[in-house]
Amino acid sequence: MSVAKAAAAVGGGAIIGGKPKFRYLSAWFCPFAHRATLALEHHAERVDYEWVEALGWEQRKDEKNVTGTGQEWWYHWKADELRRSNPSALVPTLIPVDPLTGQSNESKSVYESIVTIDFVDQISGAEGDDRLVSEDPYESARSRVWADKVNRDCCSPYYGVLVRKEEEEQKEHFETLLAGLKEFSKELQKTPGPLFLGHGQLSNVDLTLLPWAVRFYVFEHYRGTNYVIPTNDPELEPYHEWLHHCLTLDSVQRTLPDKDQYLEHIGKYADSSARSKVANAVRRGVAAHELDDKKDDY
User: Fold this and answer.
1) Which of 197, 213, 264, 290 could form a disulfide bond with 286, CB atoms 3.0-4.6 angstroms apart?
2) Under the phi-then-psi rule, with left for phi > 0, alpha for psi from -120 to 50, and beta for the rest, what region is 272?
3) How many degrees, rounded to 5, is the angle at CA 71 between CA 66 and CA 76?
4) Across the chain, where does the E strand assignment appear?
5) Phi and psi (nearest 5°) for 104?
């Protein structure tokens, strides 16, 4: 179902009597879910949601040494509601709530992190520069291309740096990430800046990359100073200006995870003991965005 059709379907019932409302199946540590959180908070005056922590970790014995670490591995638990409403059982997942009955409708759930950004934007009814997807057809198309590009080139390599065990592989993924950020920096210069779109308009491209950009500090902690995003590289100057501006936004600040808690969490990936679809995909040698529900299940 397209974003437009999904929005229309939900809107037929969820907007009656007030703002659209959703049960938001999420996980505090997940950058994919963070994308939807940012969209929801950007439109907080137009969309209501109830946060449901639907994904977590359990420590279990790695009896078959699947992770290759010889350690106990960490296993996702998933809420039944998440399993019912999303065929991949992944966050973020949005379930519309009927404002008259208070009942949720799992048959009209919306998922896939970049899709949820576009969906929340459309269902919000926002106009002009309040939109996350430009009303200009050209800019809308350009943004969708770049949302996909930064997902592949700037977000997926994050997991390669952490999950792959060989230093050569970790460095290769880091260099791929840096190249992606430099391409993003070039594209930022097509508008007055500092955001992807002009006129200070926050976009789906910004929200696609931001959850990873605010987590890059994990590299230095787990991989050392050679894995710090350079601050003195002229090619990355637009990127750093972009990030600095994003971090001044209230809708961003109130969504950031605690650094110490997140560092503890991501350690499961850094020592390669994490068992998740993303970690399993990277462990078998493909990019995070190429995960396969069957091959990478656990």
Assistant:
1) 290
2) left
3) 65
4) 21-26, 48-53, 55-60, 73-78, 93-96, 110-111, 274-275
5) -90, 150
- Over residues 159-211, the pLDDT tens digits come to 999 999 999 999 999 999 999 999 999 999 999 989 999 999 999 999 999 99
Question: Does residue 173 or residue 4 have the better pLDDT?
Answer: 173
All residues at 6 or more sequence positions from 54 whose CB lies less than 8 Å from its CB, including other chains: 25, 26, 27, 78, 79, 81, 82, 91, 93
- CB count within 10 Å of CB 58 equals 9
Tokens of 124: 């919000």
pLDDT given for residue 179 in this prediction: 98
| Residue 75, CA atoms < 13 Å, CB-side half-sphere | 12
Helix (H, G, I), strand (E, B) or coil at 237: helix
Residue 224 exposed, middle or buried by CB count within 10 Å (0-12, 13-18, 19+): exposed
Q: From the CA atom positions of the chain, what is the Rg in Å?
A: 19
| Closest C-alpha to 245, from 186, 204, 193 | 193
